[in-house]
Amino acid sequence: MAATRQVPFFNYPHVYCSDEQQLLETFADVGRRGAFIQQQDLEVFEHRLAEYVGAKYVLGIANATDALHLALRAVGISAGDEVIFSSHTMVATAAAVHYAGGTPVPVDCREDHLIDPVAVEAAITPRTKAIMPTQLNGRTADMDALQAIADKHGLQIVEDSAQALGSKFKGRSAGTFGKAGCISFYPAKTLGCLGDGGCVFTNDDEMLRKLLMLRDHGRDETGVVQMWGLNSRLDNLQAAILNVKLDSYDQAIARRREIAALYQQQLGDLPQLALPPAPDSHPDHFDIFQNYEIAADRRDELQAHLKGKGVGTLLPWGGKAVHQFSALGFTQKLPFTDRLFERVLMLPMNTSLSDQDVVYVCDCVRSFYAVGSLAGAA
Length: 378
Ligand SMILES: *Cc1c(COP(=O)(O)O)cnc(C)c1O
Prior knowledge:
alpha/beta; 38% helix; Aspartate Aminotransferase, domain 2; Aspartate Aminotransferase, domain 1; 3-stranded antiparallel β-sheet
């Protein structure tokens, strides 16, 4: 083994320090203009991002949880309407349905950890109104299969693409398939700002009209209140920060894909692990690796071993799928997800990692299973 190093799961100061000079200039510029709420930087960011993903409209929202909630309201979800989602997601996905007045219906995921279209179809009832796939870990679900189900049963699709900015299925960006798609700019997300932030994508003029009012107290462009709304705007300062971050976003994604390829090369031979699909392993998928989520034998022991070696890991969502939080009262039985959650573990995946960090993490994993280093660093 190489000497111990510290590899934290996520390096929060890096979000600021990696662009410090430019960010300081941005703070000064925005501050001196007094441009805080719904100003030019937000508009510029929305237009740039729309072009980047090929969406007709992008609307900055305070965070992705609100973005999902408002998108569901704009779609018309109301009391008694069921919305199907994968239980392997953040509780925010289900909370958005709850606060829109609907009933969240969790279903199983499949081998790639994304929503299982077979489980979706099995969960449809006369009250089902929408499917909300989570484009988990930076990979986009099989949207052909989900669209076919939605068309057959007359359902809407609203994507939780919080983890998938720039991820593609058959060349089309996550968040642009359904009526709306939502992105998070939480600091640890692939495009992170210095606080909370999110947005909605939509190609639908009527959705745009409603969302513009929903995020701003229900007011139209003349200031007249047309409906009940919320205060859920993306801060102009965060938008200005995101304009800085967007300049190097393609490089950030390229680096994440390199790290994923290195994990694959260093760990791909271990039968004790199931790794995510490697970059470019399937022509339909372009993955951006928000997370590197593996499934591992003796997961808890492996996590403790890595901790002892200075390697930070996380259990997704604190170790529970949404239907497993007993306080929320779900009654669904999801055997695949239950089994998966005994094995899932997220290894460090972020742009502050060096190749040496990644090889060190892999050597620590290999030493746990008592197999030699591939890097010859033993
Ligand atoms: C991060 C995340 C959210 C919530 O995003 P916020 O911007 O923090 O509200 C929702 N869904 C998924 C899948 C996420 O990863």
